[in-house]
## 1
Amino acid sequence: GRGIAPFTPDSNTLVVVDGQDIYSTIKKSQQNGKIPRFRRVRGGGELYTSDTVMQNPQFVKATTLRHEEPHQDKIYYFFREDNPDKSPEAPRNISRVAQLCKEDRGGTSSLSASKWTTFLKATLICVDPVTKGNFNWLQDVFFVPAGDWRHSKVYGLFTNTWGSSAVCVYSFGDIDNVFRTSRLKGYNGPTPEVKPGQVREGQEPIPSPVPSGCCCCPRWVSGPGGTSCPRHPLTGAVPSLSPDKGSIHKVVELPDGVQNIVEIQVFPNKDPIQSMILDHARAVLYVGSSSRVLELPMDMCGAYRNNCHSCVLARDPYCGWANGSCLSLALTRDVLQNLNLDSWQGSCQKGDVKEDDFHNVSVMLQSRYYLNCSIESHYATYNWYHEDMLIKSCNTSHPQHDCFHFIPSVSREHYGRYVCVSEEDGFRQALVKEHLMNHQRFLWQRGHAPAVLASWLQLLLVVALAELFH
């Protein structure tokens, strides 16, 4: 229908269906001009935004939000627009959130009868509190509803001119507070009892002078950025973020901060991920590239080492330790997890390191040798020990997949037992255990056992013959 389907393929469009109401940014006719508008095309009377309230908007996402009082129900849409500040140091675009009242009936004059009268917009700010880096370009938005509308979350994916990206999280309670309490740009008079952009029950909306506030102080969530941010409503938010290398970072929000749980390489050729959709009921993530679509379970508990400490240290809300295995919560809810600040270390049994755990390796004198230990957690420290002496530490804060120790020329002092130990949250585990041996000694040990066995067999044969002829 008109205003619902675009006349030509166009990515700068939004359509929101809320019961009998339909909201859209699509032109109703090809002769409507080039200025985009946000419209109500079905239900409650047709309305559209004034051509002066947005400057070349690029729409991102829209949603509706129900309040306790139906006359306070709101519409929110997120967009980028040209920055009115044209100074060289100012960003070219600004990210915004706009608010409209669902009960808006338009203005009273002939010029405003078909226009929204409750339009308000505010600036979305996304700043890294550590580096103070700004992220100005809103790329995508994902909504997470809650029982109380004030606690419903907005996950915004931002980029900047340096190619970095971040996810900032806002609550609709904070956004609502900004629109209700912040001063109105360009208005210096006393704050009215009912601010512009609001609706009083049984009365006409208060016309908006189109102010621009500032939606400040979002909670910062660091991440590698990506094309989408689906999240599943378990204990602890679990966003899935995708960089431009065909992989997915599974992230969890916990009481003590944000943790990147695991990185999953989805496409073997590192095809960029174009979209991600989460099926909440089945806990399945659908990942699409330009050539294929894959289905990934959110409970990939096999990605962690199948021991108690590694499973619990992963802090994956979908997984926990039970019955000697790292199990999905879809199989059982009676599992050991570490999603809060409670002490858990004593709940896992410690395993003994046995002498035969060491892998014997034959190395010739004056040869080169690499000791390799795979980095499984960027929150752990990794150390190489030679005969219980520390010889190498790896900084896991930098992107790397292995902790190497290189011996350029093997001497007799280099022979012995090497152990790679990871330590995280008070738990230590030996990941690699190698026993470097002299090549000749190694060959002697390998040949010595068969020789001893053969000697015993010969002795038994002599004894048996002696008894036979006795």
## 2
Amino acid sequence: MRGHETGPRDGATRRGHETGPQDGATRRGHETGPRDGATRRGRGHETGAGPRYGRVFEGIAKAGQSTDLNDFYTELFITERVSGEVNKEHEVRLIETASRKPAKEETPIKLEDIFKPLPGQDQPSRTIMTTGVAGIGKTILTHKFTLDWAEGKANQDIHFTLPFTFRELNLLKEKEFSLMELLHHFFIQTKGIRRYDRFHVVFILDGLDECRLPLDFQNNPIWTDVTKSTSVDVLLTNLIRGDLLPSARIWITTRPAAANQIPAECVGMVTE
């Protein structure tokens, strides 16, 4: 993966008509609020947060210089999931060897194809994990995916893109929500939606390495009711393992050292 990582993202996206005045979720239509997470087409021109995702400040650029997100060249590569604990020493080795990795060991996946079946597969992977060392461009990658979707360039079968950061989810550690309430908390426009299982939904969970929640997959109860309140930790573990809203697709980004917080059986494909 090539690129430079940036700070917290905003918003969510959905295609359709506006349902509320709040910020947080974007769809193709009319602009809805200051926290919109992607661009949409409306009245013949781009609206929403396209400029936010469209231009980012590049880490190696001179102070104050920004780079057009569409100019970034990004590729994903399928990798074997590392078994056992991945420590910081291994992460340093990844930095040192990244440029020396033979191309023949890597299978490129186009960004727009990340949620599509791979050759030889009948179904796409439900849960994708993208690993990479700090600053390599994991957050930028999720922004580019959202921007391309919102601009109508790719993945038009997706109805909602719901980006979260673990940094902001940490702040809700002591609170309880239903999944519906959690979505309404971040994306007020979703209050008009009652049946997410009728839509193609992508949850982006960015920055697993910053997670301060237990993510207790072994002991957390099974939770299947999107209207019933529980801890955010229980919601996340059930969402990731597919007990809660199994029709949703999940994309997790993380540094390699934190990847093992998610059980291997819960991850359909690992990319870097």
